[in-house]
Write a structure and sequence with these properties.
mainly alpha
Length: 378
C-alpha cells in the first residue's frame, strides 16, 4: 500500500529581523552566563589553590619548627645526659682510684710485714742450720775417728788383712780388664797406625831423597843417574815424571852446547913418547881407558878424527864407548861424532840403544868394505 502523502503546510510569513534579534539576545545572555560561571570557577579554583599552598606552607613551617624544636630538645637531652654521665663516671673513677690506692697501701704494708717476718724467720732458720751443721760435723768427726780406730784394729788381724788383699787384687784385675785394658788396646792400635804412617812417610822421604840424589848425580855427569831419569820419564804413572822430563831437557841443552869440535883442544900425549900422528889405534884405545873423564872426552874426539884409521874401527870404538862410558859428556861426544858421519844413525844420547842396534845391523857390511879397501885391486 502506498503511504499517503502529507499535505503541504504553508509556512507563515514572519519578520526576519525580529527573529534574528531575539536569537542574538539569547546568545549574548548565554555567553555572559558562561563567562560568569567560568570566572566564578576560576576564582574559586584560584582560592582553592591558594588555600592549598597556604596549607602546604603552613605544614612545612610547622614541620620545620617542630623539627628544629625536636633537634634542639635532642641536643639538650644528649648534652644533659652526657654531662650527667661524665659526672657520674668521674665520680666512680675517683672512688675507684681512692679505693685502689687504699688497697695498694694496705697491700704494701702487708708485704712489708711479711718481708720482715720472713727475714726474721730466715735468720732464725740460718742460725739453726749453722748450729745443726756444727753439731753434725762434730759428731761425724767423732764417729770417723772411732771408725778409723776400729778399722785399723781390724786390719791388724791376719784374716781380714788377707781378705782385703784378695779383694784388692780382684778389684785391680777387674779395673785393668774394664778400664785400663781398652786404653792399652787403643794405644796399641794407635801405635800401629802411627808406625804404619811413619813407615809410609819414611819410605816416601827415602824415595824423594833418592830421586833428588839421582837428579844431582845426573846433573853431575853420571850416566846411570841419567838412565834412571829416562826410565822415570817413560813411566806415565810415576809421580816424579814431570820433574824427570824437565831435568833431562836441561841436561840435553847443556850437552848440546858442550858437543863442539874439540880438535887439538889439549895434548892427550903429554908426558909420553907418542903424539897424534905416531900413536897407533891401540895406543889411542889404551889412552882412553887410562884417562879421566875430562881427558877421555878429547881422546874420543881425536881418535875419531884420525882418518888414517879405518872407519869401521873408529865407529866400533864409538860403539864400545856408548856401551861402557859412565860420563854423560863423553857419551854425548861419541853420539855427536857418529851422527856427523854419512850414515843414517843420527840420534842424541837418548838414542844410544838405536845406535847400538844400527851397528849390529851394519857392522858386517862395513867390515867387508874395510876388507875390500885393504885388498889391492888386480
Amino acid at each position: 500500500m502506498k503511504r499517503p502523502k502529507k499535505p503541504k503546510v504553508k509556512s507563515q510569513n514572519r519578520q526576519p529581523n525580529q527573529k534574528q534579534q531575539e536569537i542574538s539576545c539569547s546568545d549574548d545572555t548565554i555567553r555572559r552566563i558562561v563567562d560568569n560561571l567560568l570566572k566564578s570557577r576560576l576564582f574559586w579554583l584560584e582560592i582553592g589553590i591558594g588555600i592549598l599552598i597556604a596549607v602546604i606552607l603552613g605544614c612545612w613551617g610547622i614541620t620545620s619548627f617542630v623539627g628544629s624544636s625536636v633537634k634542639t630538645s635532642i641536643k639538650d637531652f644528649e648534652s644533659n645526659t652526657v654531662s650527667s654521665l661524665n659526672v657520674k663516671l668521674q665520680s666512680e673513677i675517683h672512688t675507684f682510684e681512692v679505693n685502689a690506692s687504699n688497697r695498694l697501701q694496705k697491700g704494701d704494708m702487708m708485704l712489708l710485714e711479711i718481708d720482715a717476718s720472713s727475714s726474721n724467720q730466715m735468720v732464725r732458720l740460718s742460725n739453726a742450720l749453722a748450729h745443726l751443721e756444727t753439731n753434725v760435723n762434730i759428731r761425724l768427726l767423732a764417729e770417723n775417728y772411732e771408725m778409723t780406730n776400729r778399722i785399723v784394729q781390724s786390719f791388724q788381724e791376719p784374716r781380714i788383712s788377707n781378705t782385703v788383699s784378695q779383694v784388692a787384687s780382684i778389684y785391680a784385675r777387674e779395673l785393668i780388664g774394664k778400664q785400663i785394658q781398652p786404653e792399652v788396646d787403643k794405644f796399641k792400635t794407635d801405635l800401629d797406625v802411627f808406625r804404619n804412617k811413619a813407615d809410609l812417610d819414611i819410605k816416601k822421604l827415602r824415595d824423594e831423597l833418592a830421586f833428588s840424589l839421582t837428579i844431582s848425580k845426573a846433573l853431575g855427569d853420571d850416566r846411570k843417574a841419567f838412565d834412571e831419569l829416562a826410565k822415570i820419564q817413560d813411566n806415565p804413572n810415576s809421580p816424579n815424571r814431570e820433574i824427570a822430563v824437565k831435568t833431562i831437557i836441561t841436561i840435553m841443552r847443556q850437552l848440546s852446547e858442550a858437543a863442539v869440535n874439540r880438535r887439538n883442544a889439549i895434548d892427550i900425549w903429554d908426558g909420553t913418547t907418542n903424539n897424534m900422528t905416531t900413536a897407533t889405534f891401540e895406543n889411542f884405545v889404551d889412552r882412553y881407558y887410562d884417562s879421566l873423564a875430562s881427558t877421555r872426552l878429547h881422546v874420543i874426539h881425536q881418535l875419531f878424527c884420525q882418518e888414517r884409521f879405518p872407519l869401521y874401527k873408529r865407529i866400533s870404538f864409538l860403539i864400545d864407548v856408548m856401551k861402557k862410558e859412565e860420563s854423560l859428556v863423553c857419551l854425548n861426544q861419541a853420539c855427536f861424532l857418529l851422527s856427523q858421519t854419512k850414515s843414517d844413525a843420527k840420534w842424541s844420547i837418548i838414542g844410544v840403544p838405536l845406535f847400538i842396534d844400527w851397528w849390529e845391523k851394519n857392522k858386517e857390511k862395513m867390515y867387508q868394505e874395510m876388507i875390500d879397501q885393504k885388498t889391492p885391486k888386480q
